[in-house]
Design brief:
This protein is mainly alpha-helical. α4 packs parallel to α5 and α22 packs across α24. Helices cover about 60% and strands about 5% of the residues. β5 and β6 form a beta hairpin. The strands form 2 sheets. The chain has a 4-stranded parallel beta sheet with strand order 2-3-1-4, sandwiched between helices. Strands 5-6 form a two-stranded antiparallel sheet.
């Protein structure tokens, strides 16, 4: 996983250090013209293409700064590059719980849209709404999808099934998956069960000629003219193998590391150049180890020892976070699923120099926060909590924003652990800090998160959730997602007519807000007359196929109200498969069974609805449930 540009450790134009080149850095990305053209043509003509290569070979740069801008210039219909790890711009609890990977990918495919537009949507539903044929979509760093997830394994498996089904349905969609070599087999297996037309595209290191072109043209783009022979000499030196002979290829990550910190001129002799490259690589290795130590909250000595042991084959582990971090920073790569080697023999001398004492810089509050967020994205909640708490504990008056975002991150961590009271506490702390910064939008989303959490708390009154969500919509008045949350809370508080008005207002702002459509459709279905039933089905049909159980039960009730009994029975089967302890879903199912003529099933479901806790029946529905369960 490469660092995004601008993160700690990134270089400066035209050299981005361990980061990948972004679309904005396209003027400095060179040496891959042939690969850009070939991959672009294959992506256009293939249902699913897998871009693969070793860590650090430049896959993300090729995708972000090469192929996507190239195709965009041709007028191709393509989405922003997707990513399977969600980067939170707002509290996680502010939207309904949903598939972690679907939400991450959909949010990254439409980066400028409100996150609420991605909530409760499946990949297939999104593609159906989006349209376009051919439509090019991509997922970078997709190896995450083919590794066991520490906290979202069920979501991972369901997402792959969902993505596969969506690709089979939407044959005009062209999907590119970017993976590391070690997960190529799993990616190919996925492709085989997904589409008839798939291909693989291997990205190799640069040839010496292309490496020279990459460095020379990026320097010229930055307004810097290298001395004659300087670039060729640098590439020759970086491209040497373990025997100091030309290897015929150049690792892009190593070239970046060697070039960063070296002047664009030739050294006086090959020996001087070799020594200068050693100095640059030694500084690079130490900087990367120090940043890994800072991110992981451990000593640099521990990281150095772990690196040496892995290279000596002493109990290496594929799931070791330190090794994975070193791999992500392109110091090592996998020789096999459970063993590692240096990215390149040219790093041997710099790594050997680690026996000398090295002082690791103290981590700044910003780095602590960045490390916490990165750990949260990959599911290491313990490390995420520790680093976020350290960022809060720094308590520097100059870093109020960092403290606010760290408190929000702690709320997200608690939310992931289903620690509702703790999440609410951290969100309130964050809201107070953002309030002091006069960031009303951030405060509004935090209040919405608190309101939703209260709504899901058994011993909290829905009225308290309404109060928080009203405050949220007051801070951010034109956000349909916040209004949809308020509509849900009003319904649960026994105010269905007021909820309808709020939900209709949300849909006036954005007619495709999934939660607003579902909740309004449910309320229409509850009204029990034919016209309302038709309105319910219009709303629910717009939601797509990933409707929550209460909405599927509402669909069954509306169909039964319209005497479409066979269709109602099918919808009931779908709803009851997941209704579990959902009071409103069970009551709607009971009413639908009654209309379908099965009074015994209606009585049984009504009794379950009265006892349900997740969520319980709203007060205005309890009397109806009592009447149903007492039917003779």
């Amino acid at each position: 996983m490469s660092q995004p540009a601008g993160s700690p450790g990134a270089g400066t134009a035209p050299f981005v250090g361990p980061s990948f080149f972004t679309a904005e850095e396209r003027p400095f990305f060179h040496g891959r013209d042939q690969e850009i053209r070939r991959l672009g043509e294959s992506w256009l003509s293939t249902g699913l293409i897998i871009l693969h290569g070793a860590a650090g070979v430049g896959k993300s740069s090729l995708l972000h700064a090469g192929v996507v801008p190239f195709l965009a210039d041709l007028g191709t219909d393509l989405l922003a590059v997707g990513h399977p790890a969600f980067s939170a711009r707002f509290p996680l609890a502010a939207v309904p719980r949903q598939n972690h990977f679907s939400f991450a990918v959909l949010s990254s495919w439409q980066p400028d849209a409100s996150p609420y537009r991605s909530s409760e949507l499946s990949i297939g539903d999104f593609l159906r709404r989006r349209g376009g044929s051919p439509l090019l979509v991509s997922i970078d760093q997709a190896e995450t999808l083919f590794r066991t997830s520490p906290i979202h394994e069920r979501d991972r498996r369901l997402f792959l099934e969902e993505l596969s089904a969506a690709m089979r349905e939407h044959t005009g969609v062209r999907l590119l998956l970017c993976v590391r070599d070690e997960t190529l087999g799993e990616a190919v297996e996925f492709a085989l069960r997904t589409t008839r037309t798939h291909a693989t595209f291997r990205l190799d290191p640069l040839t010496p000629e292309n490496a020279v072109e990459a460095v020379r043209r990026s320097l010229l783009a930055a307004g810097r003219t290298p001395d004659p022979g300087a670039v060729e000499a640098l590439v020759d030196e970086v491209g040497k193998d373990a025997d100091d002979e030309p290897s015929g290829e150049v690792e892009p990550a190593l070239l970046q590391a060697a070039r960063t910190g070296l002047p664009p001129c030739a050294a006086s002799s090959p020996e001087d150049l070799a020594a200068a490259v050693d100095v640059a690589l030694r500084a690079h290795v130490r900087r990367q180890l120090a940043e890994v130590a800072a991110d992981q909250g451990c000593s640099l000595a521990k990281v150095a020892v772990r690196l040496r042991r892995a290279l000596e084959d002493r109990s290496p582990a594929a799931d070791d976070e330190l090794l994975r971090a070193l791999e992500n920073r392109h110091l090592i790569r996998r020789r096999s699923p459970h063993s590692f080697e240096l990215l390149h023999p040219r790093l041997v001398r710099p790594v050997q120099s680690l026996s000398e004492p090295v002082d690791a810089p103290a981590a700044s509050p910003e780095r602590m926060l960045a490390a916490a967020r990165a750990a949260l994205r990959r599911g290491d909640l313990a490390l995420a909590r520790r680093r976020a708490e350290e960022a809060v504990g720094a308590n520097d008056p100059q870093h109020v924003l960092v403290r606010a975002e760290a408190e929000r991150t702690l709320g997200d961590i608690a939310h992931e652990e289903f620690l509702t009271d703790l999440a609410i506490r951290h969100y309130r702390e964050a809201a107070a800090l953002f309030e002091s910064l006069q960031d009303t939008t951030a405060v509004g989303h935090l209040l919405a998160a608190i309101g939703r959490l209260l709504l899901a708390t058994a011993d909290a009154s829905p009225a308290t959730a309404v109060e928080e969500l009203r405050a949220a919509t007051g801070r951010v008045p034109n956000d349909p997602g916040l209004q949809a949350g308020l509509g849900q809370a009003l319904f649960r508080a026994g105010q269905p007519q007021t909820a309808l008005a709020v939900l209709s207002g949300a849909l006036t702002l954005d007619g495709d807000t999934p939660e607003a459509l579902q909740t309004r459709g449910e309320i229409f279905a509850d009204q029990g007359n034919r016209e309302s039933a038709k309105s319910a089905l219009r709303d629910l049909d717009r939601v797509g196929r990933r409707a929550r159980p209460s909405s599927e039960a509402a669909r069954a009730l509306a169909l039964a109200t319209l005497s479409r009994l066979d269709a109602a029975k099918r919808a009931l089967d779908v709803a009851l498969a997941e209704a579990d302890d959902d009071g409103p879903a069970l009551l709607r199912a009971a009413r639908a069974e009654q209309l379908c003529g099965d009074r015994g099933a209606a009585v049984k479901l009504a009794a379950l609805a009265v006892e349900a806790k997740d969520p319980p029946l709203p007060s205005h529905q309890r009397s109806e449930a009592d009447l149903l369960r007492e039917m003779p």
